[in-house]
Amino acid sequence: MKYRDFGKTGVKISQIGFGCMRLPEIDRDGQRVVDEEKAIPMLRRGYELGINYFDTAVGYNNGQSQYVVGKALKPFRDKVMISTKLPLWMVNTTDDFKRILHQSLERIDTSYIDFYHFHGIGKKDFDEKIVPLKLMDEARKAMDEGLIRHISFSFHDKPENMVYIIERGEIFSSVLMQYNLLDRSNEEVLAYAHEKGLGTVIMGPVAGGRLAAPSYLYEKLLGKKSGSTPELALRFVLGNKNVSCALSGMTTIEMVEENCKIGDEENPMSPEDWERVTVMMEEIKKFSDLYCTGCGYCMPCPKGIDIPYVFNCYTYFNVYGLKDHARHMYSRVGRAEHGVGKPVADCVECRACEKKRPQKIEIPKRLREVHEALTAEKI
After folding, report:
1. CA-angle at 173, arms to 168 and 179, nearest 5°
2. What's phi and psi for 202, nearest 5 deg?
């Protein structure tokens, strides 16, 4: 594994980071729980192959991710960096900062957090919650007490608002942001963050699965058949020298090993290939009119619709051009034996999903459009 300077923190970070949002799960007594027999060996294999940055959060895997990450990494805690997050939607008073921090420390079974993020913030969160509740002061106190080593933030807002936050959040050591082949809107602020000395971690390098399927389109990008589309997506992100680390939400040991092979390379993508991809990106943009990362924050739907699954069907249809496959996937929706949610027609436009979404997708409207595209039937 090759390592990069992590901003001005003084630490080296592995090029590939382990995103612990989608650890493998199993059904147990009617509940989805993390499959520890698979997840723990997978996390430890990542460590063996050189990954030293593991990213979790309070709500990942229905609240179980922190426990499993802590358990898996306990034998070599001092050799890895654990990142977790403060969910601002759970913070109503200044005292909530310390309460939630201590809960995370207990769940991970550690005495300190390496990188503690304000989770998914934008300008409004910064101005209306972080500043008035003096949460930056609480973060400094936690650092002084040795509970946190670095303060960070993850970001889901307009690029210009990241500049606003960086300019006012002088204690931030790093930022976690979205950036990939299909969404390069943060490319300039990524460079700005790097220039300002922040470590930069990329979430969604394979665009929430949109770049995880084979497609002739991506072979055209480089003019050669050199590997899988996820490999190309990771190489593209790491080919940007303003990137410190690319997080990958790995679900199998095989995936861990494949991604770490890329992380072993000094230059995952040459400047020439980077330029070629840049030139060809205009061809891809026309396919990205519905950008869902599959994060699941819009769930659960009160009516039982599996929103990420429906939007993923459209990805195969519209981005990859795999229309028959997409229609077959969508035909499973609403059929109990397949377990992929209720029919889109059951949507009553309550908009509970839109209150929780990080992406600004008009979900009820887009659900209808996907249904019509894949069935030629109007709702």
Report:
1. 90
2. -105, 125
Helix axis angle, 229-238 to 271-285, nearest 10°: 120
CB-based contact 298:357 (threshold 8 Å): yes
What one-character DSSP code corresponds to residue 63? G
| Tokens found for residue 227 | 């590997």
User: Given its phi and psi angles, is residue 30 left (phi above 0), alpha (psi -120 to 50 degrees) or beta?
Assistant: left
Q: Is 119 a member of any domain?
A: yes
271 and 323 together in one domain: no
296 lies in some domain:
no
Q: Decide: 113 and 125 in contact? Cβ < 8 Å.
A: no
Phi, psi (deg, nearest 5) at residue 118: -75, 120
Q: Provide the residue type at 36 as one letter.
A: E
Phi, psi of 175 (to 5 degrees): -135, 140
Rounded to an integer, what distance in angstroms lies between the CA atom of residue 84 and that of residue 26? 23
Q: Where in the sequence is the domain holding 78, given as residue range(s)?
A: 3-285
- pLDDT tens for residues 158-182? 899 999 999 998 899 999 999 987 6
Work out how many domains the chain is built from and give that number: 2
Both 132 and 258 in one domain: the answer is yes
> Does 149 map to a domain?
yes
Residues 6 or more apart whose Cβ sits within 8 Å of residue 351 = 363, 364
Residues 324 and 279 in one domain: no
Q: Looking at the domain assignment, is residue 297 inside a domain?
A: no
Same domain for 153 and 65: yes
First to last CA, the chain: 51
CATH number at residue 18: 3.20.20.100
Q: What angle do CA 242, 252, 65 make, to 5 degrees?
A: 75
Quick check: pTM over 0.85? no
Cα gap 246→255, rounded to integer Å: 14
pLDDT (tens digit per residue) in 2-53: 999 999 999 999 999 999 998 999 998 888 899 999 999 999 999 999 999 9
